[in-house]
Amino acid sequence: HIRTMLLQHRNTREKPFRDEKILADWNGLAIASLAMVSRALGKEEFLAAAGNAASFIISRMRTDDGGLWHRCMNGVAGIRATSADYAAMIYGLIELFIASGDPRHLKSALDLEEYHATYFWDTKTGGYFTTPESAADVFARQKEWYDGAIPSPNSLSFSNLTRLALLTGDEEFSRRADMLSRQYSHLADTNPSACAMFMAGYTLSAGPLQRVVIVGKGEDPLFGEMRSFLDAHYLPFTIPVLKNEDREDLVSGILPSVKGYASRGGTPRAFGCSMASCQAPASSVEDLRTLLGITKE
Fold first, then answer.
1. Where are the domains of the chain?
2. Which residues contact 168 (CB under 8 A, 6 or more apart)?
3. Of 55, 236, 244, 248, which has the fewest CB atoms closer than 10 Å, so is most exposed?
4. Do 22-134+142-206 and 210-292 agree at the fold level?
């Protein structure tokens, strides 16, 4: 009763304004989080929310030359994006691709990374400048390395490059990741807590990283069971890729590295590969458990 009376009294006061800005970098981090939660909890509504946010940014906050706007307010996008916007959106789109299996999200991530590298990458020493080379309102171009409440664009980018290298097999991503890691060597050695996101990415790159490609018809029960098995386990060194053979041309066109993987006699299979080699494919959930070295509880 008292709570109801208090609420009624509060509603007589003018409500505070809500910040209506839509920011590319914050949405990128939110998209990644929603995609991860959708896999962990098996909740499609979180995946749908991530997809809707990504679609809005990609369709409503792109510049004419393929870049990003930093913010959108009242339907109007503006302010040229910084490295933080690109790094966070690429991070979110990669996670959304992993969760949904929709190769269009990976295509968007690759397009943004190409733009990011073209206009922000330091070709001399490595790392991404905060502002593009065309920025005329800064005295000197700087780079952000330290992670705070929000990870730095270079920390996020290291994780992005590491995963894009494994997903695509493109050595250019590996080359940039290596150059970027060298820039972090002193900071990681003297103050690792200041670059926690980079350390997470480095753990990924230095560990037994592998890509698991599940191939089959999207409606096949075994395809779904294999996917659910991966989502139900904490596999920090594994990047799942869903190759739905109903969309063969679209998947192989964006991700040529999986073109040679196929089901056998209509039965879905899972292929586990590192940067150097692949293991024998799994044709059942139990085979997939063995491939990943997961013991039964």
1. 22-134+142-206, 210-292
2. 110, 255, 256, 257
3. 236
4. no
Round to whole Å and give the CA distance between 47 and 186.
38
Check if the beta carbon of residue 217 is closer than 8 Å to that of residue 246.
yes
CATH 3.40.30.10 fits 210-292, yes or no: yes
Dump the DSSP string for 48-110: HHHHHHHHHHHHHSB-TTS-BEEEEETTEEEEE--HHHHHHHHHHHHHHHHHH--HHHHHHHH
- Mean pLDDT, each 10-residue run in order, the chain (297 residues): 92 89 97 96 95 97 96 94 97 96 94 97 94 78 92 96 90 94 92 93 82 91 93 89 84 82 91 82 93 83
Q: Helices 83-100 and 153-168 sit at what angle, rounded to 10 degrees? A: 40
Integer Cα distance of 89 and 18 in angstroms = 24
Angle between helices 103-120 and 44-60 (to 10 degrees): 40
The DSSP bridge partners found for residue 72 are 22, 77
CATH of the domain spanning 22-134+142-206: 1.50.10.20
Task: Report d(CA 184, CA 127) in Å as an integer.
Answer: 9
**CA-to-CA separations, 82 to 39, 73, 87, 88, 93, in angstroms, rounded:** 30, 17, 9, 10, 17
Token pair belonging to 126: 């490595």
Beta-bridge partner residues of 238: 210
Measured CA to CA, the distance from residue 156 to residue 276 in angstroms comes to 24
Tokens 């970027």 identify what position?
180
Classify residue 252 by burial, with Cβ atoms within 10 Å: 0-12, 13-18, 19+. middle
Q: Could you tell me the pTM of the whole model?
A: 0.91
